[in-house]
Write a structure and sequence with these properties.
Helices cover 58% and strands 3% of the residues. It is mainly alpha-helical and 149 residues long. The protein is rod-shaped.
Length: 149
């Protein structure tokens, strides 16, 4: 491919990608280089580049140690900040939590839901008696009435 056409295609692809994805400013040059290299490689012998090579060469948006914060989690793929990554991973990256952990070499215990948020939801469920039989729920209600009286 001639250089001018290659540059033009790279700009169009990166522009289209950025219109749908949020990318940290520091990773933009790497994105441009990788798109340009992929186009140059595909134009050389007509064979597409393998998808496995870029996955191994990818670097996380933030260091793994900094991805779990007190009030939020950060996606290692794109830097998305949120309380729950499970839905984000499925919709934006097409990954299950186990695939995400495997991709980044994380332990199975690595959270995809903020631990404090999960504890708060579990406490609410216990207060409501979710997961209990009706007999257990009526005992819980009786205990609450006795403690209020």
């Amino acid at each position: 491919m001639e250089q001018e056409k290659l540059t033009e295609l790279t700009v169009e692809i990166v522009k289209s990608y950025l219109s749908n994805q949020s990318v940290l400013a520091g990773s933009l040059p790497n994105l441009i280089k990788s798109v340009g290299a992929a186009l140059a490689g595909a134009g050389g012998d007509g064979a597409p580049q393998s998808a496995a090579a870029p996955a191994k060469a990818s670097t996380p948006a933030v260091p793994v140690a900094q991805s779990i914060r007190r009030n939020n989690l950060v996606c290692l793929d794109c830097g998305h900040v949120g309380i729950m990554l499970r839905r984000h991973l499925r919709e934006k990256h097409g990954l299950s939590p186990s695939e995400y952990r495997t991709k980044w070499g994380l332990k199975p215990e690595y959270p995809v839901v903020l631990p404090a948020y999960a504890r708060r939801r579990a406490d609410i469920a216990r207060e409501l008696g979710l997961g209990m039989t009706s007999a257990e729920r009526s005992v819980l209600k009786a205990q609450r009435k006795a403690s209020e009286a």
